[in-house]
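thread: overnight batch results

M.L. [08:02]
morning all. the overnight job finished for the chain we discussed friday. pasting input first so we're all looking at the same thing
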Amino acid sequence: MWYWVKTPKLVKKIFHNQIWDIPSNQPFVYLTFDDGPTKGLTDKILEVLRNYEVKATFFCVGKNVQKHPKEYKKIISHGHSIGNHTMTHPMGWWNSKKKYLNDVKQAEEIINSNLFRPPYGKINIKSNKILQKKYKIIMWDVVGGDFDPNCSKEQLIYNITNNVEKGSIVVLHDNQMVKNKILKALPLIIEGVQKKGFKLKAIPFTPLR
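M.L. [08:03]
and the structure it wrote out:
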């Protein structure tokens, strides 16, 4: 499975209207989790974050929020940020503008945040300008690779700790496919990032209503 662990500077420059990192003089790194909430996993991720006194950002899928409202409310009550990750997790390149925007709008009704992350990192091109008017489009600087069956726990930890820098946005996942790997790796990822002198923070968000 091919993907960039570290997003190239050229990609960031070409797609400059999307947020790939958050430049700062402070040593901040931003952990993000896509696809939840997930029963039996989100709670455990939240527990690890609580133990390390770390805040993160959860890009939630609307249908999962509907299925697991308790887990969603717990994310918020624990002081983490939330973001819209669409209602049904569609591939932006394969859907019409109307269908894609409607999917985002449905999720917006239950995920009250000005942060948006397109599933698979592939936004619907025709929808991009419209979404930019309302949302901050949050991408990433470092991909852990937890979704990759060939990426071991050790490689996942290395991918993140070896590539983060000031302002890095790191993408991980909150779904059943990565459950065992992420729970084993997350404490070591946090420790590794902190040992490099970084502080893990949530991306600030603003409610839309």
